[in-house]
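Hi R.,

Here's the chain you asked about this morning:
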Amino acid sequence: MTRLTNIPTLSTERLTLRVPVEADFEHVATFFASKKHSWGFGGPLDRTEAWRWFATNLGHFALKGFGFWFLDTAEGETVGMVGLWGPEGWNETELGWVMFEGAEGKGYAREAAAAVRAYAYDTLGWGPLCSNIFPGNDRSVVLAERLGAKLEAEWESPTHGTELVYRHPSKQDLAGMKEMTE
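And the predicted structure, written out as tokens:
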């Protein structure tokens, strides 16, 4: 079996953000099968479409060096995905997140998103990221705002229609925010 070896593993206080493996597909298929959980991420999708998304994510890592990491707790439970996404036709690379059923409301998405954002800024040398959020996805809006992102614009996605673009603070702005709270 061939594995992508250039994908870094990221760590937070409670999570390991790791390369996707084939066994993760069941999490993805279950997530996309639920309209309640996946509507804000382009779902629902049947198993074949979910497989295509899963394979596209791996291709994203192979072609661009980034994608969605899978989140494992210290107990080994896979609780979601957080990553960087910039397919053909996208307005820019975005920071996105998904928590699997039962993992919402525990702060995992915020913790992982902050780690991925730091990786994008510190390792990749990128400027301020955006998060594209479907109108009505209030939980994602709250998370974006907790991460310091501000509504910047609406954007017509080539695949999903109207999305709200939330702009994250720059690395310098984050440092200033941290200084103000200390």
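The beta strands are 10-11, 15-18, 68-73, 78-85, 94-99, 130-133, 150-157, 161-167.

Let me know if you need anything else.
M.
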